[in-house]
Amino acid sequence: MNRERGLLAASVISVQNSCFVYPACEKCFSRLVLDSRRFNCLKCGCTGDVKDASCRYRLSLKIADTNDLFDITVFGSCLDPFFGVTAENLQRYIQDLNQLSGETSADTSLGVLVQAVEACFIGKRFIFGV
Predict the structure, then answer these.
(1) What percent of the chain has a predicted confidence (pLDDT) above 70?
(2) What's the CA gap between 126 and 7, in Å, rounded?
(3) Which residues contact 99 (CB under 8 A, 6 or more apart)?
(4) Which segments does the entry list as coiled coil (predicted)?
(5) Helical H segments across the chain, by residue range
(6) What is the pTM (predicted TM-score) of this model?
(7) Where exactly are the structural domains of the chain?
(8) Which pairing describes strands 21-24 and 125-129: parallel, antiparallel, or unpaired?
């Protein structure tokens, strides 16, 4: 497997999913398994209270350069400037918005967020480290 790193200038064609934030292990950044009170990392075994779980950005995109299409995923705090807040704060804002509006599902706020992310990224050209 080729382990060389490089830069790729490409345009975003589409956003691949609507899950932009996930609960992440602070040690290995893997997705945490949450139950009503505790979290568990299946990769490194880290455990704790759900209220102490941190969140991380995960943005899956389809991009194109002049010759090829690629599926890539951008992780972490490099996305903070695009969202304007950390992943933890965005998750908190969405939860607060849903509570204030009385929404029983997050579909309404999620739909608005997806539209905003698509407007920010689709059709724009970025330099990706790959």
Answers:
(1) 93
(2) 10
(3) none
(4) none
(5) 80-83, 87-101, 107-121
(6) 0.83
(7) 7-21+58-129
(8) unpaired
The pair phi, psi for residue 27, each rounded to 5°, is -90, -45
Beta strands in 29-85 (DSSP E): 32-34, 38-41, 47-49, 54-64, 69-75
Comparing C-alpha atoms, which of 60, 53, 2 is closest to residue 29? 53
By C-alpha distance, which of 1, 45, 2, 51 is closest to 23?
51
Q: Phi and psi of 17, rounded to 5°?
A: -155, 175
Task: Say how far apart CA 57 and CA 104 lie, in whole Å.
Answer: 24
- Helix then strand then coil, % of the chain, to nearest 5: 30, 35, 30
Residue with token string 């204030």: 100
Amino acid at 85: V
Q: pLDDT confidence of 33, banded at 50, 70, 90?
A: very high
How would residue 1 be classed by pLDDT, with cut points 50, 70 and 90?
low
